[in-house]
Amino acid sequence: MESAPRRVPATFWLTTLLLVGVGVALSIFYAPIDTTMGPVQKAFFLHLPAAMNTFFASTVVCLASIAYIWQRRPLWDDLAEAAARVTVIYCTAVLLTGMLWAHNAWGHWWSWSPRLTFSLALWILYVAYLCIRPCSWHALVSWRPLTRHWRPASSSSSSSSRRRLAGAALA
User: Fold this and answer.
1) In angstroms, rounded to a whole number, what is the distance separating the alpha carbons of residues 39 and 69?
2) What is the distance between the alpha carbons of residues 122 and 161, in angstroms, rounded to a whole number?
3) What are phi and psi of 34, to 5 degrees?
4) What whole-number percentage of the chain has pLDDT above 90?
5) How many angstroms separate the CA atoms of 89 and 61, rounded?
6) Which of 27, 50, 145, 164 can bridge 93 by disulfide, Cβ–Cβ 3.0-4.6 Å?
7) Each residue of 13-35: pLDDT tens digit?
8) CB 136 within 8 A of CB 130
């Protein structure tokens, strides 16, 4: 019974790597080279799916964060963090492949058009989100159990402790 769950992830990853390899091979060797753009046009075979997955992953971050605020289950927070990491990876691919194509098409690497600037702002936002997360509420919660046992002294215990301290000082 225990061997079945181990085969599923191995099969999944093997199938995923095989399909990615087939897709890359088809885009490099089978897809025709564009007459006006040349081989750089093939960057769109990575650029467009990465852009779509960037927005999908950022939507998952949004929905998981709302679910975490609503239910306070760590599962939703972990999903939001994982999707944010995926968003950064895909957005990096979008920015790099877009710049490669733009250099060939326009003669410069970057133009401050609203679409490009939005992609850069999205990348900066999620990188900052991942950098700030360790400094957020979770870091405060990690030391919170240390203060949970602290109780303010009641008046009777404080007066008895004062008497013990006074007695120890006199002795």
Assistant:
1) 47
2) 58
3) -70, 140
4) 42
5) 14
6) 50
7) 789 889 888 988 888 888 888 88
8) no
Compute the distance between CA of residue 22 and CA of residue 86 in angstroms, rounded to an integer: 22
Rounded to an integer, what distance in angstroms lies between the CA atom of residue 5 and that of residue 128? Answer: 36
Phi/psi for 38 (5° steps) reads 80, -155
Q: Report how far residue 54's alpha carbon sits from residue 60's, in angstroms, rounded to the nearest whole number.
A: 10
Q: Which two tokens stand for residue 123?
A: 């990348």
Q: Do 97 and 50 contact (CB within 8 A), yes or no?
A: yes
Q: How far apart are the C-alpha atoms of 128 and 122, rounded to whole Å?
A: 10
Q: How far apart are CA 149 and CA 152, in angstroms?
A: 10
Q: Are 104 and 38 in contact (CB under 8 A)?
A: yes
- Give 125: exposed, middle or buried? Use CB within 10 Å, 0-12, 13-18, 19+: middle
